[in-house]
Amino acid sequence: MSNADCPVCRTADIVCGKWTLLVIRDLAEGRARFCELERSLEGISPRTLSLRLRALEEAGIVERRTFPEVPPRVEYALTDKGRALVPIVESMRVYGREWLNEDGACVEQPEPAEPAVAA
User: How far apart are CA 75 and CA 68, in angstroms?
Assistant: First the structure.
């Protein structure tokens, strides 16, 4: 199977961009404005956030809603296609809690205790 035909590869093309899964994580909570996302995503530049949101909008993952107000208000939300990615983020959250230290280092899970054998 070529990468172009592989559903895992095609999904990775969308979600593996830097910051993408974190944008999806934040929007899973509901609609958010640009400044709210920027504050939540510590270290992201406004230009990078703008490019990520635009790419996700083009992929049909995020919808952008502009309100006719002064000053203009723009909100972002996940589409149905975007909400379908939330279980991936949740699985990563569970994995991180179970297998990674707070510093991101991998941890070994303790071996399950063997049941005591009655003599």
Answer: 12
What's the pLDDT band for 21 if we cut at 50, 70, 90? Answer: very high
Where b means 16+ CB within 10 Å and e means fewer, 66-84 reads eeeeeeeeebbebeeebee
Task: For the full predicted model, state whether its pTM sits above 0.85.
Answer: no
Distances in Å between the Cα of 95 and the Cα atoms of 36, 64, 71 are 26, 31, 42
Token reading at 61: 């993952």
Say how far apart CA 94 and CA 114 lie, in whole Å: 25
For the domain spanning 3-90, the CATH number is 1.10.10.10
How large is the angle between the packed helices 46-58 and 20-27, nearest 10 degrees? 80
- Asked if 98 and 91 count as a contact pair (C-beta separation under 8 A), the reply is no
